[in-house]
Model the fold of this input.
Amino acid sequence: MTPWPPLVVLNGHGVRLEPLAQTHASDLQKASAEGQLHRLWYTSVPEPDDVPSEIDRRLGLRAQGSMLPFAVIEEKPGPLQGRAVGMTTYMNIDAQFRRVEIGSTWYRPAVQRSSLNTACKLLLLGHAFEQLDCLAVEFRTHFMNHQSRRAIERLGAKLDGVLRAHMRMADGSLRDTAVYSVIACEWPAVRANLTWALEKPRG
Done:
């Protein structure tokens, strides 16, 4: 039986999300090495040498029906055009109740302060609510990852709560997890906010 959601390629606003594959490994190894992202203690970015096994891990979760992983492809003109610059996923998928989490996301530093993340979230949220008929989409992050929390809040997601001592990190520390969500009735306002963020004049 084919896992839900089905495979899909999402395009728009200078970014393409395509199903993750080992063909993306070389680009993603370079992306991980830039700025030594894997050394950030409050997030989980694979070391460059571990990228192929991380791709296999995510594809294994896809086969089990709990994740749909994507490679993030930069499409704007420039030195990274056509290259995979990060990963993102639908995860913790609940096909029965039509809920997904957008997570396990990371980007190389060169694109982190661009419009790429906003574009990715607009594509993923739009597909979840408009094609998959989701009731809610969650976002989860380390309570101490203030950059990630600010980015989630700018999307228009609301804080549901904090799961204390929720999971153990690779360094042995315990993670408090901040849980956010967007529900279906909020999507039109969130869509308008994200679209304006991408299209507003920049002087």
Summary: Strands lie at 10-12, 15-19, 67-74, 84-94, 99-107, 136-142, 158-168, 174-183. The helical segments are 25-33, 51-64, 109-112, 116-131, 146-155, 187-199. The chain has a mean pLDDT of 92.
